[in-house]
Amino acid sequence: MIRQITVPPMERLNPFLPRLVETDAETRTVVAALLADVRSRGDPAVRDATRRFDGIELAPEEWEVPKSVWHEALDRINLTLRNALEAAITRVTDYHVRQRDPGFRLLQEDGSILGMRVTPLERVGLYVPGGKACYPSTVIMNVVPAVVAGVSEIIAVTPPTGAMDAVLAACALGGVTRLFRIGGAQAIGALAYGTATFPRVDKIVGPGNRWVAEAKRQVAGDVGIDMIAGPTELVILADSTADPQNIAADLVAQAEHDEDAVAWCITTDTRIADALPAALENALARAPRAAVARAALERSGLLIWVPSLQDGVAVINRRAPEHLELLVRDPEAISEEIRHAGAIFLGDSSPEPVGDYLAGPSHVLPTRGTARYASPLGVYDFVKRTSIIGYNRSRLLNDADHVIVLAEAEGLTGHAEAIRVRMKEK
To answer: What is the spatial distance between Cα 57 and Cα 204, in angstroms, rounded to a whole number?
Structure first.
């Protein structure tokens, strides 16, 4: 069921490493036309697209859901779920307050000022999948860092088929300020460009289908976006101290997301390599989503035997996974050698699901190897930085010659002249 390879040589990994995935031409074309229509016509284009793609006729005055209506979900969910949602929000908040950046102000000896001001974005859009999708944790993991950053307005959009009560409750508890029942690429366009009904946002975050992902790709630059997420990924590094049954449970937990999920186990122990296939079968036999998980394991699962933990670390840094579990004797020491991973889980008592729901860091993480340069979603994604420069006359005169020389070297004589006119006695 799960493919097995031995490395080194590292080149054996190449067929299994992430590749640039281009959106198909039809999706690009349809989304581009839809976004252009929304940008040009506004509300009528959003209404037409909703009728066309969702089969629902909604007038603009029906799009926004009154806050009282979606807050009623708090009374409909059971108390155990509400307590779990509130615990998650508390944990995620406590973690992300430590990411706040106060900026700085440097007073120079001559009285000049240099600094950096950190300002929250004014308005953020959150895409919330609807229909069969029910991911209140994703609402929390996107909204809470924005709230901690100080974002004033968080506009959530969800398909008109409606979000489930758990998701609505997460919106209410997490800090969403407005909710619209419009989904798809048309919702992304409305958030990016604004319409008579939709306020234009500064940044769009949240997961969605291929149409939503392509729309985010195309509006990037007109507004900010979080990332274009690929299939979810888990890599486990296991030595002789690991339990094959626990490894199998974690791989199946990852694979149950969807058929494209990626689940790898790297091990230095032949006992684990021999035992894992049977352990996976046992885990699948108990899994309600076994068909999905099996398809993912057959498509993208991998068991990699390495002769040493150092070789395992080399595999990890080459793969740059979204999630990494270190089921080894000294996970913290090994973690110091990991350069590329979205989130690292230390030891057998830290399975990946604790990060999905409750540990604290946002579970919105870089995929497709982008952990080589990208970071988890955080407070820093919802702020912008402004440089502050306050010269006094003595600093200007001291730096003038250097500025003039550099400006003239670039052929920008006007820049040089703007300095010279200030050097004259007044």
So the answer is: 25
Angle at 113 between CA 112 and CA 118, to 5 degrees: 170
Q: Which residue has the tokens 């790297």?
A: 266
Give start and end residues of each alpha helix (H) in 286-336.
290-300, 309-319, 331-335
Q: CA 40 to CA 44: how far, in whole Å?
A: 10
Q: CB neighbours of 336 closer than 8 A, spacing ≥ 6?
A: none
Active-site residue, 322 included: yes
**Rounded distance, CA 140 to CA 279, Å?**
33
CA distances from 244 to 32, 49, 233, 273 (A): 48, 49, 19, 9
pLDDT of residue 425: 66
Strands (E), 141-267: 153-157, 178-180, 203-205, 224-225, 233-238, 262-267
Q: Is the pLDDT of residue 22 over 80?
A: no
- pLDDT computed for residue 311 by the predictor: 98
- At 4 the three-state DSSP class reads strand
pLDDT score of 426: 60
Name the nearest CA neighbour of 237 among 347, 363, 375. 347
Of the listed 96, 257, 323, 340, which one is catalytic? 323
Q: Indicate if the alpha-carbon torsion angle 285, 289, 295, 300 is positive or negative.
A: negative
Query: Could you report the per-residue pLDDT of 142-170, keeping only the tens digit for each?
Result: 999 999 999 999 999 999 987 899 999 99
Ranges assigned E (strand) in 187-275: 203-205, 224-225, 233-238, 262-267
Length of the chain equals 426
Q: Are the C-beta atoms of 125 and 201 separated by less than 8 Å?
A: yes
Query: b/e for 84-120, b at 16 or more Cβ within 10 A?
Result: bbeebbebbbebbeebeeeeeeeeeeeebeeeeebeb
Domains, the chain, in order of start with CATH, read: 3-19+230-359 (3.40.50.1980), 25-225 (3.40.50.1980), 391-423 (no CATH)
The H or E element containing residue 62 is none
Q: Cα-flanking dihedrals φ and ψ of residue 42, to 5°?
A: 70, -130
61 annotated active-site: no
Q: Pairing mode, if any, of strands 383-390 and 113-120?
A: antiparallel
Out of 214, 322, 325, 352, pick the active-site residue.
322
